[in-house]
């Protein structure tokens, strides 16, 4: 099987790499992915996918096979902006392949893997590896700022019901078993407005907020005392106040907290922490909700509580990935956990679908100047994705 997959990928390699390069050349910021999505849909059609869907929120999903076991590969095709084009050694949207690397914004995060999955779909079809399976190749939108929302809609709106999900974020070809969660909290402290020349007639919301700021700082320090890898974190990231003018006492003060979540932490458990931070004050807290519009014009709301997720070493999906990797590369894969958040928050948590990670490219390159992805990773990832269905239970 390994040899057949290698041969099939080799025959397609030039097209695969040209396609990966082309994807990098198409700028596709969050909410502005139309061009790249249409390009991927066209490629899937040309590659004789059984079905190609562009859905309500603008994801593109290619379907191969119609068997009962359903496997979904997800790659988000939005990316962060380039603020320093002059600092790049090669043009950020050049998609240049040189010295064995594909260079450009989103090369690692994560158009390399997107291209690898699109071509894996073809290999799976050519070799009949879709027997008894349905393969969804999903290139999803809006991940960078709205983790999980695009993929959630891809799965729910289109009734895909996958049994297994592979998140193809860059993992340097390590089998990735989950990541920490993240949440944003908003604490609002009320005050009473008064003229700045008579502060005693009002209540300064910023002064009131000081007590909460001190508690946040203290708790953040306590978390840092815990062993690395097992600790949550807490950071006050922004303070805003409202006052009718610069010579008025502020009538409210808002604090934003970034809270990283470890496995097992829930909305309820962190609610107790938030209650304790505002105890004895008349402040209120809420989970921050962010809203955005997809390129198709749909409104998406992200509720910013994204729990950690993990999959066990003994889970059948993990075992399948390990077996496929061993057949392909002749050794045990490294097992890993991502340091960032991914669309897995939607599949593993909200939808309860067994989810694992494996991707081409270098995690540390994500969002960096001079981002690149090794070409060999793209080829190996394509081989791995092609082989995996054969190993699923
Ligand atoms: Zn990413």
Structural overview:
This protein has 393 residues and is an alpha+beta fold. It folds into two domains: 2-179 and 308-391, Aminopeptidase; 181-293, 2-Layer Sandwich (Alpha-Beta Plaits), CATH 3.30.70. The chain is 35% helix and 25% strand. It has a six-stranded mixed β-sheet, sandwiched between helices. Helix 1 (2-25) packs across helix 3, helix 3 (107-126) crosses helix 9 (375-391) and helix 7 packs across helix 9 (375-391). The longest helix has 24 residues, at 2-25. The model has no long low-confidence stretch (mean pLDDT 96). The structure holds zinc ion. The site of zinc ion (ZN) has 6 residues, from helix 3. Residues 76, 109-110, 143, 169, 366 line the site of zinc ion (ZN).
Order of neighbouring strands in the sheet with most strands: 1-2-6-3-7-18
The count of strands amounts to: 19
**So what's the overall shape?**
elongated
Number of domains: 2
Q: What would you give as the CATH superfamily of the largest domain?
A: Zn peptidases
Determine Rg (CA atoms, Å).
23 Å
Bound ions, cofactors and other small molecules, one mention each: zinc ion
Low-confidence stretches: none
Helical run tally: 9
- What distance lies between the first and last C-alpha atoms, to the nearest angstrom? 17 Å
Q: Percentage of helical residues? A: 25-40%
Beta-strand portion reads: 15-25%
Structural class comes to alpha+beta
The largest β sheet comes out as: 6 strands, mixed
């Amino acid at each position: 099987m390994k040899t057949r997959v290698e041969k099939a990928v080799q025959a397609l390699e030039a097209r695969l790499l040209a396609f990966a390069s082309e994807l990098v050349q198409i700028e596709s910021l969050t909410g502005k992915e139309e061009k790249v999505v249409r390009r991927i849909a066209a490629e899937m059609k040309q590659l004789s996918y059984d079905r190609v869907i562009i859905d309500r929120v603008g994801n593109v999903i290619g379907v191969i096979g119609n068997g009962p076991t359903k496997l979904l590969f997800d790659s988000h095709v939005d990316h962060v902006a380039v603020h320093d084009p002059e600092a790049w050694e090669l043009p950020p949207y050049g998609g240049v392949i040189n010295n064995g690397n594909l260079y450009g914004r989103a090369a690692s995060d994560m158009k390399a893997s997107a291209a690898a999955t699109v071509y894996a779909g073809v290999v799976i079809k050519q070799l009949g590896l879709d027997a008894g399976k349905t393969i969804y190749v999903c290139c999803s939108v809006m991940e960078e700022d709205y983790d999980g929302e695009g993929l959630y809609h891809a799965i729910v709106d289109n009734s895909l019901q996958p049994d297994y999900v592979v998140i193809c974020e860059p993992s340097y070809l390590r089998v990735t078993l989950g990541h920490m969660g993240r949440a944003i909290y908003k604490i609002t402290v009320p005050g009473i407005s008064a003229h700045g020349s008579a502060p005693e007639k009002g209540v300064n919301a910023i002064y009131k907020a000081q007590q909460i700021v001190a508690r946040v700082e203290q708790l953040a320090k306590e978390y840092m005392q815990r062993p690395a890898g097992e600790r949550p974190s807490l950071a006050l990231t922004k303070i805003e106040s409202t006052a009718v003018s610069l010579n008025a006492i502020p009538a409210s003060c808002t604090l934003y907290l970034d809270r990283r979540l470890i496995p097992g932490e829930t909305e309820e458990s962190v609610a107790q922490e938030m209650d304790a931070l505002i105890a004895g004050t008349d402040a209120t807290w809420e989970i921050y909700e962010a809203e955005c519009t997809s390129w198709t014009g749909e409104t998406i709301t992200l509720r910013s509580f994204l729990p950690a997720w993990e999959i066990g070493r003994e889970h059948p999906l993990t075992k399948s990935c390990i077996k496929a990797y061993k057949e392909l590369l002749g050794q045990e894969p490294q097992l890993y956990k991502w340091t960032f958040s991914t669309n897995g928050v939607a599949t593993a948590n909200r939808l309860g679908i067994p989810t694992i990670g494996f991707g081409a490219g270098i995690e540390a390159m994500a969002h960096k100047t001079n981002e690149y992805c090794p070409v060999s990773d793209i080829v190996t990832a394509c081989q791995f994705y092609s082989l995996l269905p054969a190993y699923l239970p």
